Amino acid sequence: MIFRHSAAAPYLHSRRLWQQMVNGAWLDFYCIGPLQRLEDRAGIGPISNIYRFHTANGKWMLHTESAAEVGLVRRDGDDYWGWVQILSENHIPFDLVSFRHSDLDRYRALIVPESGDVKAEDAHVLDAYVKSGGKLLLSGRIPDALACMGRPALKKTWPLRHSMYVRIRPEDKAELDVDGLKDFDLVQLRGDFHQYEPASGTGRMLRLIHDVMYGPPEKCYYRSVSDIPALLVQKYGEGMAASFPFQIGAMYREWGNLGHPMLAVGALDNLLKTGRRLKIESSPLVEATHRRGLKGRFEWISLYNHSGRLENSFHPPIPIDNVRVSLKISHPIKRITSLTNGEELIRTQKTSDDMEIILPKLDTFEIVLVEYAR
Length: 374
Hints:
By secondary structure, the protein is of the alpha+beta class. The chain contains eight helices and 23 strands.
């Protein structure tokens, strides 16, 4: 990637360089004319810091591969971009994948936004993935050719309305097991909702509320909760598939209601039991990337602090304290280090294969390096 811009947005350009580096790409910053003639030099300092960091830590940055365990099928719409936001804000590293050019079997879970557009041949690929043990999460209409959801019968598509909600019952909260859902009994629904008659043995969660008065506050209420499920889950072969029969990513992109990502992450982590190796507790403004060495001798988690961003302005970020990183390990640990200062980090062995790492302070960026004794 070549940047043919002024250096006037220093933290914007340093963020882009950081994203290149932590995703295995080479660094490149291009400006027209020699550096000593620049009349806008604000970006040179932050950009130089990234280059210095890369030079000092080249042996860890080069020859790595993604360690993300979630694949997000690349689409082009609000539902897709909503899922990008959901995964990023919940610190779930993911790869963008395609049906034909990606090794889908390497992922613990696949997410398919706008799933109603999936072609028959791609549906067969998803069926094979689930049958062999994969976990699949759909958002939108269930593809007609897909077998792993039990081929439910589509009874009706409720069109976009201002007066529909999804009811979150106590048993749904227990199954999804997300602490924040205790404060949500419903979330709004605006967009197509596909009502299915599930196949035998299909789990039926959440409920559609469609009988709603809409208008001034004194008229906004619902009379009843339907039996129409808003989340379906089905075992298939060695794996599982689940479907939100509406575009939950698009809901979050439009409304920003925190109930939507809680439902999404609960379905991914706890309903489908994906067993992710990496979990991070910190502000949603922290962006995380997970990579590993090709020979299995190390892996690292990159963290970038976006707190300085305000719409199209980029400012020095506010430091974030006590970022907690939980990582499941399978080999003895040699050392865990902060690459910005070279200091070893505090770690606690929670179980035989589960470890918690504490990063005391995150300024602009950090990489937590985990070296194995191999």
